[in-house]
Structure formats: C-alpha cells, structure tokens
Design brief:
The protein has about 450 residues and is mostly helical. About 75% of the residues lie in helices and about 0% in strands. It has a single domain, classed as Hydantoin permease (Orthogonal Bundle), CATH 1.10.4160. It contains 18 helices and no strands. The mean pLDDT is about 85. It comes from Virgibacillus kekensis. Keywords: Membrane, Symport, Transmembrane, Transmembrane helix, Transport.
Amino acid sequence: MKEERDQWASRLGFILSSAGAAIGLGAIWKFPYMTGMNGGGAFFLLFIAFTLIIGLPLLIAEFVIGRGAQREAISAYKKLAPKSGWSIIGHWGVFGSFVLLSFYSVVGGWVLIYSALSIPGLIIKENSNYEQLFGMITTNPLVTIAGLGLFLIINILVVSLGIKDGIEKSSKVLMPLLFVFFIVLVLRSVTFEGAAAGLNFFLQPDFSKITGESILYALGQSFFSLAVGFSVMVTYSSYLGKDISLPFAAGSVSIMNIFVSLLAGLAIFPVVFSFGLEPAEGPGLLFMVLPAAFAQMPFGEVFLSLFLLLFLFAVLTSSFSMLEIITSAFTEKKNRSRVKVAWLTGLVVFIAGIPAALSSSSLSGFKIFNLTVFDASDFLVSNILLPGGCLLIALFIGFRLDQSLMKQEFSYANSLSGGSYQLWFQIMRWLVPITIIIVFLGSLGIL
C-alpha cells in the first residue's frame, strides 16, 4: 500500500493529474450554466478574483497539509494536530466527497451515454432536436441509473488498482488533447452568425445583475472547480516528493482551470446566442449546445465523439479523486483491502445517487426546500459544505498548524521571495476566513 502511493513520477504528472482532478464538471459543465444564470461577464470576473485570491491560497494550503503529513485526509489532520478535534476536517471532506460523487456521477453517466451515442453518429442528425434528446436521456429512469452505475464501475476499477500509473500517464496525453479540442471548438463557435452577442454577454460585465446569492455562487464555483474544501488535494499531494514547488504547482493548476473556464465560456455562449437558446438553461446547457456547434463543422460527428470522450476523461479524473479520498480513508490506517473498500464504497455511492438520477423523472415532484434531490445536493455541496470545508482549512492553517512545517513545505523548490510565505499565511489566516464568512452571511441576508 505505502509503496503504491509513494510519489508521482514527475512534476508534470502531478500538475496534470491535479488539474485533471480539478478540471472536470466544475470548469466544463457547471461553469457555463452558472455564468449564464448569474449575469455573464460580471460572474466570470468574480470567479477569477475568487479563484486567485481565495482558491489559490487554499489549494497551496491543501498541498502543504498533504505533503507535510504524507497521509490521506483524515490521518493527515490527526498526525499534524494529534489529540485534537481538527481531524473533523478530514471527516468533513470524506462526507462532502461522498455527497458530491453521488450526484456528480449522475452527470458523469450523462457524459458516458452521450459518448457512447456519439461513436456510431447517433447524436448529430439532420433537423435534430438536441433539447428533446437531452430530455429523453435524463427523464428515462433506466437509462440514467444505468449511466450512473457504469460511470461508477469505471471509477471503482481504476481506484481499485491504484491511481498513480493509470491517471498520471493518461493525464500527460489526454489533458493537453482536451485543451486542443476545446480551442478548435472555440475557433468555430466565434464564427457563427450572432456570436458577437454571446461574446458580449460573457466578456462584458454587467454588475447590476450581481446579487449576494451570485457572489456566493461565484465563491462556491471557485472552490468546486479547484477541488478545494474537501481535502482531496491533501490526499493527492501526500504522494508528492520534496523537489516540487507547491506554489508553482498550485498556480499552474489554478491558471489552467481559469483558462479552461474561459474556453468553456467562449465555446458555449456564442452558440447559445446564435441558436437563440436561453443562457440560463441550467445543467443541460452543455449537452444541448455542444452537438449544435459540432453539427456545423466538417466531420462534426468525429469531432463531437472525440471531444465527448476527452470530456469523459476529464470528468473521470475528477471523480477518481473523490472516490480515492473515501477509499484511502478506509484502507490506509487499518490496512483493509483497497479492492473491497473501493467496490463497497462505489455500491453505497450508487445507491445514494439513485434519487439524484431520478430527479428529472420518477422523483421530479419530490422537493427539498423547493429543490429536486439533484439540485439540493448541488446546493448543499457548492454553497454549504465546500465553503465550510474551506473555512475550516483556513482556520487550521492560520491558528493550529505548526508554522515551521508550513514554511518548510512552502519553501521547498521555491524561487519566490521570502516574503511570499508571510503574504500567503496572512491571506489564509485573515482574508480567506473573513471573506467566506462575509459572503455566506450576505447570501443569507444577514449582512
């Protein structure tokens, strides 16, 4: 077990694997529709600001904790703060990852189904109604549950074998390809008639559309898309050697995440406005817009199939990290069989994910605070559990973790000036927790 998770083979492998954990549904699927529902360009600017000012320091923090402890999430906090209650952060992360994976896998199932349909060319057809196709898939209980199950089986098989060799080696090839195909899609999207309106919506901020709720959503989106708050990156960085600069790695992941979010917006919104769709379509936006865009390209079916397969990989690398944090929590300390724990965890996640999978069909009338199970799970994760986890990590860094260990981990292979550590530490100690608390209270109407 310990030999299997010693170290990543290279700095590039770790960065691309961490980017793969972060760049999934958050950047490619959720970001476009959240931007569409919250005013476009102003939301994008808030997202960038929160990512760089709050998300990046938090990502460095999780890297520091993980490499400093060389343990999975729960054990890491126990080792760094023995005989204290700080291990609740690890438990919080495992629970949050479980909830997130239960509905994330539903969308992963949609991507899997779309990928399977695209290979024989069953998506792009003459006079196709892509909104109707999406509805047919998401409202069919057997199809959505089958997609959920198959998606989780892929996760279980990979995590059962250990993630180092498979994910790292694949990430070095497939993550760059994802960027290439995204750029191809953007170049085509911006040439559609009426694309300028979509570009204006996405790139020209209108702050009159921003509300307290929108600010909370932008903060939550920055956490969601960087995979911070649930100590997933604590587990990933526990495989890391001392020859890698944590600020450099975190900065690289953050910039790639912003770039992918930019590409997602540039690819989606010109097509939305060109085809007269509503930018606030919600979770189905990507599944209705992408096929319409590729249908206008030469060899559109081939491009759509390749993109969906690469998108599926990006989604899977994110879900691998969620299943990994849960699996590691139950295998590392008690030396349980990774294979058995992965299959058992996957089965429990599958059962927990069924209500979310049925939110558009059999359980569409069942509401929690006027939200479907899927939307309620999304709200719980993005707006409560993720900000809460980030707040706890910030307090742990700012008031509990040994400063000498933090400074040492921060400084390894780091060419930044000596003052950069103090700047990061003060941001984590004061700015991050205060911002999270203010935004959260503001969204509740308390401030």
